[in-house]
Amino acid sequence: MKKVVVVDYDPAWPAVFDRLRDQVWPVVQDIAISIEHIGSTSVPGLASKSIIDLSIVTPSDAEVPLTIERLVTLGYIHRGNLGIEGREAFKQPDGLPRHHLYLCPQSSLGLKNPLALRDYLRTHPDIAQAYGDLKKQLADQFPHDIDSYVEGKTDFIMGILRQQGFSQEQCAVIDQVNRIQK
Questions:
Q1: How far apart are CA 9 and CA 175, in angstroms?
Q2: Which of 38, 93, 94, 165 is most buried per CB count within 10 Å?
Q3: Is 40 helix (H, G, I), strand (E, B) or coil?
Q4: Distances from the Cα of 28 to the Cα of 21, 24, 33, 58, 65, angstroms
Q5: pLDDT tens-digit profile of 97-146?
Q6: SS3 for 131?
Q7: Binning pLDDT at 50, 70 and 90, where does residue 178 land?
Q8: What is the dihedral of CA 166, 168, 173, 178, to 10 degrees?
């Protein structure tokens, strides 16, 4: 069983994201809008598990199949949506820094929720600090129970999203995302 490990913010995380993005972007640049750094490693000063989250953004659902085909050429293995409509997940190729790669149309809640959370935490360092403290506490409390760790973060995250105008139903998507990103 993997141990839940939350570490202090590492200023190298943006460079790791850049390196990963730079490997993926050439094969999708003609069909994607951007590659976004999402998740806790994208928020300066925020404690996190040391896993970079990236989301390739396409204009619509129409570009998703071709983007999947292109990512396979880089060694990514398509895992489907893992229960999150509008978000495709991939297993990373060997030899790269640990990361989660996703593919989302720009209108997808699977993209909108993590971007809203990221942007809020980036502009509210006091809340980001409180969130990081909570994550460390939960990792200490549940070092071998990822489900309890994730559950312990849910109310905090949902509170931010509701404050940002997301409905209860829309917030539920981020809860599903957190459960899958174990």
A1: 23
A2: 38
A3: helix
A4: 10, 7, 9, 9, 12
A5: 999 999 999 999 889 989 999 999 999 999 999 999 999 999 999 999 98
A6: helix
A7: low
A8: 100
> In the structure encoding, which two tokens stand for residue 7, read together?
């570490």
Place of tokens 């971007």: 115
The predicted model scores a pTM of 0.91
For 52, the token pair is: 């970079």
* Residue matched to tokens 């993590």: 114
What topology does CATH give the domain 13-180?
Beta Polymerase; domain 2 (3.30.460)
Termini Cα distance of the chain = 12
Sheet holding 77-80, edge to edge: 34-38, 52-58, 99-105, 88-91, 77-80
- Where exactly are the structural domains of the chain? 13-180
Token pair in block for residue 161: 């999203």
CA 99 to chain centre: 9
Taking Cα atoms as reference points, which of 110, 109, 118, 111 lies closest to residue 157? 118
